[in-house]
Amino acid sequence: MQYKGSKITRIFLLPYLLVLLVPIMIGTLTYNKTISVIETETAKSNMTLLNQSKEIIDRRLDEVDRITQQITLDPNLITFQYIADPFEGSNTYRTIEMKKSLVNYNLFNHFIANYYVLFANSKLVMTPTEVYDLPTFYPNVLQYGKLDYTQWTQQFMGKYHTKTILPATAYTIDGKEQQMITYIQSLGYGTNSFATIVILIDNLELVKLLSGLDIADGGSAYIADKNGQIISFISNESRPFSPDLINFTSASGTIFPSAASNNMMTTYTTSAYNGWTYVVSQPAHIAFEKVNYIKNTILTIFMLSLTIGLIIAILMAYRSSKPIRFLVNTFESSGEEMGKHEKTKDAYQLIQAGISRLKNNNDALQQEMDKQRPMLRIAFFERLLKGEFSISDDNKLVMDRLGIDLFGETFVVAVLSLSDHNLIVQKEIQQDLDIKSLMIKDVISRISENVFFHAMNGNKVALIFSCRSRNLDDCKKLVDEFVLRMNREMHEQLYNPSIGVGNIYTSLEEISRSYQEAEQALDYKIWKAIKGMVWFSDLPQTNGSYYYPSDVELKLMNYIKAGNQTEVQKLFVEFYSENFDKRNLSSSMMKLLVYDIKGSIAKLVEQIVIDDQLLTKQLQALFAPFDHLEDVQEIFRSIERTCLHICEVVNSRKRSHNDQLLKGIIEMIHSHYHSPNFALLAISEKFHISEVYLSYFIKEQTGIIFTEYLEALRMEHAKKLLLIESYSVKDIAEKVGYNSSNTFCRAFKRIYGISTTEYKKTITANNL
């Protein structure tokens, strides 16, 4: 009778389908919740970034307040503000002392770009490093926006300021335009103010804090004071920034995208310190980009998971039913094994009858195994002592079947010699050895149940101890007591065996290791003719290996390639300490260490081709053979000197290459400075160097950046051409690499402080 496999498979498939419905329902319920949570987390993420920026700026502004307070309380400043003529008589000394008392705060506070103290009576401007008179200082050293001198003095010194903060404005400082936020504090009270402190805060510091926000595709972020004035902002649009100021109804919150908000998500928070509002606005598709991505991802994964789940359910049902189908077909096809059992159409009844017959056969097999148990025990112990044993459920079942209780916490092996001399063993009658072995086995069975006897080939017997305690001292005490009792019993039989014991271990897999150690201890005992039992731990120990791991070898080679002499010296100090101070190496190990390091140097020399006669001689001497142990340390030092010399050669090669490269770059600049399109890219392409590294290289070698060097070169040539009357300003601009004469004139005036026309007049007048 045959059963259709598809019927059994369908029976197994039904539970899998029911189980598959559970994650489908849970996934559907959690999908909407997940999307909602992610949208909320997106808003929280923006709020977290804003709060972090707010807290940092509040701390920095508080530091600025405290710095301002320190400056205003300076006794020298309080006195000096009333001086009208700072360089008359003793006032000169007061001027010097006043400048010395100003601390350069921007050395330890990068938030502050610089600060100035403006004195109305003396018409002086002081910084921690310089002293200027007001007309020279403004606008030659500093200029605020497009204000002239009168407007600037009126705004900054003409009225009283209390912690006044002006928005980010373009300053021209030493000829360079920079965006700065201005902090102003007047000294005194009301109209009696004779000094003003002006602190410039680098707007880039605020922009860096806001740059972590995603403002792509029309987004923006800004900081506004409590009056709605924009202090600083970032935007990815090229047009002027003009945010829609919103009257927020709370100190912080999020306005989600809607038609009223122009489909923008706005997150804002207000500082309790100064009332500033921090705002970020993002288009909905940018703000919820992750949400939309996760939506699509979840739906895709859901459909794939559903499809895969159905396939897996079918496969698992087929796989699970396969043993049942196999059993049914097996029992059905075996008419002889069916015996007198009535055939049935119920597959499970058929399987039950077959299992019953298998049990009967197993009982018969068990009886046969009991007869073979002694041989199986011998085979088991052979595998255990050879290290072929591993802890598994099958092996535990085997031990249980063989009546071997090796389920202790600690294990140790002792090896007994039936005869201490091989020559005697060869002459002794084998029957006598068997008698001794049986005597030991009989004594062990009488004095302990946790010691297992195993006769080895030849004249040795292994004893395996299984201790119930995890304490190693307790196990050692148990072994000592057992051997003492056994020796007493054996002494009565006029026989005292030699015994070697290995170390104690906590794992069955390590019994083979203990066995090997016990054999070494026994061999040492016989060799030294030591009386009594010998533990492997009592044998004299030596350091067997040297310290030179592969990762340290790689590190040494990399440091030498980089020419880093300091790190190379540190590594050799480490090598010497580890191998000569901390380890007691044998002569062969020391030689192996030296050969290993020499091999590293040989590999290194092949990688970097070096043409150096001194180094060649050093290497020839280094690789010469040596025989005496006392030469090892001197050779080790010679290796160190050779490595340091290789570093010197590498560094010299680097310096030579840099000089040649700089010479080529300067020659190219002098040859092409008159071309308006000449830029860093042309040099980069010629010398096959990235623009970033090239810019860094020029700054490192010349002290100025590429554009400053090119501009200075063009201006030097322009000054020479201005002496020639036949050349117009336009002609000169074209000859020195400018497309526009206006651009050339602005650059000339920015660098030299006068226009080209005035310069030409001055030169002409001097010549007359």
Automatic annotation (TrEMBL):
Keyword Transmembrane helix among record annotations: yes
GO molecular function, one term: sequence-specific DNA binding
SMART domains in UniProt: HTH_ARAC
Transmembrane annotation, as ranges: 12-31, 298-318
InterPro entries in alphabetical order: CdaR_GGDEF, Homeodomain-like_sf, HTH_AraC, Tscrpt_reg_AraC-type_HTH
Keyword Transcription carried by entry: yes
Entry keyword set: DNA-binding, Membrane, Transcription, Transcription regulation, Transmembrane, Transmembrane helix
HTH araC/xylS-type domain: residues covered: 663-762
Xref: Pfam families: GGDEF_2 (PF17853), HTH_18 (PF12833)
Signal peptide start and end residues: none
Annotated protein name in UniProt: Helix-turn-helix domain-containing protein
